[in-house]
Amino acid sequence: MAIFLRNRRPAAAAAAAVLTALTALLGAAAPAAATGPATAAAPPAASASAPAPGDRTPSALALPRPTGPYATGRDTLFLTDHTRPDPWVPSAGARQLLVSLHYPARPGSGGAPAPYMAEEEARLMLAQRGLEDVVPPALVSATRTHARTAARPAPGRFPLVLLSPGFGTPRATLTGLAEDLASRGYVVATADHPYESTGTRLPDGRVLTCAACDRVSAQPDDAGRRKVLAAVSGGRAADFSFLLDRLTGPHASWRYARMIDRHRVGMAGHSIGGNAAASTMAADLRVDAGVNMDGTFFDPVPATGLGGRPFLMLGTHPGHGPGDDTSWDEGWDRLAGWKRWLTVRDAGHFTFTDTPEIGEQLGLEDPEAPLSAARSTTITRSYVAAFFDRTLRGRAAPLLNGPAPADPEVLFQQP
Q1: CA distance 253 to 77
Q2: Considering Cα of 393, then 295, then 308, then 239, what sign does the dihedral take?
Q3: What φ, ψ does residue 360 adopt, rounded to 5°?
Q4: Each residue of 151-171: pLDDT tens digit?
Q5: Are 228 and 220 spatial neighbours (Cβ–Cβ below 8 Å)?
Q6: What are the tens digits of pLDDT across the range 30-81?
Q7: HSE-up of 108 (CA within 13 Å, CB side)?
Q8: What ranges does the record give for the region Disordered, renumbered to this chain (predicted)?
Q9: DSSP state of 70
Q10: What Rg value do the Cα atoms of the chain yield, rounded?
Q11: How big is the CA angle at 36 (ends 32 and 42), to the nearest 5 degrees?
Q12: Is residue 389 in some structural domain?
């Protein structure tokens, strides 16, 4: 799967070689696809180059507005787990996490909209996609969000949703989903897992790059790469158990932790983050429900299942229908609780992130994933929210009962 810029020349061949080893693992035509039988969240290499004469770059980018009734706030936590060394760079010391917390807020409170990502994080992300000379990093980093910094929390206690991004992908790329869930009355904690992203900027200004990506690329064969990716998912389960301790335990690290109803916890993730949702549920009974958005189960669903807890598999079509990714067939058979397997026609691996919205505003096209940004956003938000409304709030979710005429792209799989 290639990505093209409208009215721009083809890219240099070097851009397509960024993730050669991962491409072989994913079984895709290019890293952009990441939808084959072994899908990780490898950022796509793009067929793009410098703007052609007369090209117009937009002056500003913006995420779509949240759809719920609440205003939203955002905090950032930097946490250190002194019980574990970093699994990818042990010399770095204890495992650390950067966490964005989106939450329902009082209307009219707070300061400026929260920043999308640091400029250096944007530069590194664009470089891995072969777009560093095409798209200004400052433009991406300045993408307008809707959550306000220092916003006062809304009264009440709210379910908690944990979010985990794809492999090699910054947590910022799930901001649109996090803001929307917060506007619907959820506290949302999105984690950056250091050394598993193109770039994670720490509070002291250091930027950590993807040592785990290097580990995958260094493996001599498919089996070795799969083993490392399974370790990524399992390691994230430990990250989120630690995060739950710090958000819901007796010595909570977040100033608004009282907002969280610790008896209602869900988790969703994109690509390897979706695998991590299952890995976390298998390791931690505090997580009540999970969503895998287009991620292969490198770390398999346990043979004993997930204790009857509900799980949603939401993926591309083709790519994650029955028989496309055998880990989904195996995982489905092992899930004994309430479950749904949905696939989305004309979707791409990054349909479930902010990528379609930002890409469309930049004039980026993916001819193999023609689903529009508006439909990508609506489907992702609607079905993920319906799942958590049903499983964490006990609300009716007719959207999950069967095909909806308003969403002809969404297919209900019945293996």
Answers
A1: 8
A2: negative
A3: -65, -40
A4: 999 999 999 999 999 999 999
A5: no
A6: 233 232 334 443 433 333 333 343 355 788 999 999 999 999 999 999 999 9
A7: 0
A8: 37-67
A9: S
A10: 20
A11: 40
A12: yes
CA 190 to chain centre: 8
Residue type at 172 in one-letter notation: A
- Compute the 3-state secondary structure of the chain and give helix, strand, coil in percent, each to the nearest 5: 35, 20, 45
Enclosing H/E stretch for 161:
strand 158-164
Q: Phi/psi of residue 281, each to 5°?
A: -65, -40
Q: Provide the β-strand partners of residue 312.
A: 291, 340
- CATH number, domain at 199? 3.40.50.1820
Rounded to whole angstroms, the Cα distance separating 51 from 87 reads 40
Q: How many domains does the chain have?
A: 1
Q: Beta 311-317 vs 339-345: how paired, if at all?
A: parallel
**Cα gap 368→345, rounded to integer Å:** 11
Return the structure tokens found at 134: 């095409």
In a domain, 272, yes or no: yes
Distance CA 164, CA 171 (A): 7
- Report the relative pairing of strands 94-105 and 187-192 from DSSP bridges: antiparallel
- Boundaries of domain holding 154: 56-412
**pTM reported for the whole predicted model:** 0.89
Using a 10 angstrom Cβ sphere, with 0-12 exposed, 13-18 middle and 19 or more buried, the burial of residue 52 is: exposed
Residue 379 counted as domain residue: yes
- At position 242, the amino acid (one-letter code) is F
